[in-house]
Amino acid sequence: DTRRLGATIDVEHSHVRFLGNLVLNLWDCGGQEAFMENYFASQKDTIFRNVEVLIYVFDVESRELEKDLHYYQSCLEAILQNSAEAKIFCLVHKMDLVPEEQRERIFRLRQEDLNRLSKPLECVCFKTSIWDETLYKAWSSIVYTLIPNVQQLESNLQQFTNIIDANEVLLFERATFLIISHCQRKPHHDVHRFEKVSNIIKQFKLSCSKLAAQFQSMEVRNSNFAAFIDVFTPNTYIMVIMADPTMPP
Predict the structure, then answer these.
(1) Signal peptide location in the record (predicted)?
(2) Where are the alpha helices (DSSP H) in the chain?
(3) What is the CB neighbour count within 10 angstroms for residue 140?
(4) pLDDT tens digits, residue range 44-96?
(5) Cα separation values, 28 from 12, 31, 168, Å
(6) Is the peptide bond between 120 and the residue preceding it cis, with omega within 30 degrees of 0?
(7) In Å, how far from its chain's centre is CA 189?
């Protein structure tokens, strides 16, 4: 239950193993004013050294936007001094609290401000909420930038898709079910389908674990397509979608 999650106190460290041998060292820095001042006064060289990715979360309903932006720029200055090659991502969070008809406009305005204030660095912005698939999409995009040799991976996936004559092929990280890469031969109207598929599979895996069973594979067919999900490598699942619903697995 997300309502029971407390505020981050100072800096919390965690390690996430991704794709088997890629270990992500996460430093979750609390956003309270006293902590922010301390980061820049005494911990700057420690926190901002050897950073690959900076993810800055803005509360879209914050009443202290000017202060939020000041701290953001202080982070960017520290990044420039200690990790100039780091990638910058901004999450404009709690978008579910904004009336739906205003969300796109407010996000675009915030995005323009952040792009301007981030120079000479470049930032990528995402509008996010814990109540839909937007956080998944943001994290998939962020982790994608950390995957080594990703261009070669995409090229191989394209060849595989063509060889088996699939409509679409998706590659998921096994533990998190974040999307690593995908290839589609026909455009699809639902831009959130990856996030939806991932959520369905994660819920199904959870149901399996409650029954002391382990998720291995899944097959879905209807009159329009056949979809297969199976283990691909020790660290990935693959999903193959075929236009022919009679196609054997």
Answers:
(1) none
(2) 33-42, 44-47, 65-82, 100-118, 134-144, 150-164, 193-210
(3) 20
(4) 777 788 889 999 999 999 888 888 898 899 889 989 999 999 999 999 999 99
(5) 5, 9, 36
(6) yes
(7) 21
Task: Give me the sign of the Cα torsion angle 245, 223, 189, 231.
Answer: negative
Domains and CATH numbers, the chain: 2-144 (3.40.50.300), 150-242 (3.30.450.190)
pTM summary value: 0.78
Size (the chain), residues: 249
DSSP state letter for 98: S
Contact 228, 197 (CB under 8 A): no
Tokens of 39: 């980061």
Instruction: Provide the 3-class DSSP secondary structure of residue 63.
Output: coil
What's the Cα-to-Cα distance from 98 to each of 57, 69, 95, 128, 229, rounded to whole Å?
A: 16, 20, 5, 11, 36
How many whole angstroms separate alpha carbon 100 and alpha carbon 7? Answer: 27
